[in-house]
Specification:
The chain is an all-alpha fold. The chain has helices at residues 6-18, 20-28, 33-60, 72-78, 82-109, 114-127, 129-143, 150-153.
């Protein structure tokens, strides 16, 4: 199905490629300080800013299409244009990356083997919430812990 908005299609492709270095850093260099700077701050900030521009442009223009967030039909009307779908995709990219960065930090705090985290990161990249669920189950299986912050149990939380 051809996209009627070539700019939205190009930005979609750019965003998909641009986010990959951050994911590769999470997988290959999880302990490098720059990894968290890029994956938990810089990339989500830039993607989120692009998202904001698209959302503001969408609602400032005449593109609202009568959509709302109170019904499935209303949400479907919100995504009636390629740029609205692009904004939704950027939302996924930013949040999935932020969750992946959190998983790496949390696994390090809990001293979980990074190799076991890699499938969870892949799932988070591709299927978002299923990656988070897989990580939480891995964490539970390895540490038998549901504590939201492992530092709290050791008295390290500020």
């Amino acid at each position: 199905m051809p996209v009627a908005d070539p700019l939205a299609a190009k930005l979609f492709s750019i965003a998909n490629v641009a986010v990959m270095p951050a994911w590769l850093l999470l997988a290959a260099l999880p302990r490098w300080r720059g990894t968290q700077v890029v994956a938990a701050f810089v990339a989500p900030l830039l993607i989120g800013a692009a998202y904001g521009v698209l959302v503001i442009g969408y609602f400032a223009g005449d593109s609202g299409g009568g959509g709302d967030m109170f019904s499935l039909a209303g949400v479907m009307r919100l995504f009636d244009s390629p740029r609205a779908v692009l904004a939704g995709w950027l939302h996924y990219l930013a949040f999935d990356l932020f969750v992946g960065a959190w998983q790496v930090r949390d696994a390090q705090r809990r001293e979980l083997p990074h190799l076991l985290l890699l499938p969870c990161l892949a799932l988070t990249l591709m299927l978002g919430p299923l990656g988070l669920v897989s990580y939480l189950l891995l964490r539970l299986a390895l540490r038998r812990s549901i504590d939201p912050d492992p530092r709290e149990t050791r008295g390290e939380a500020a």
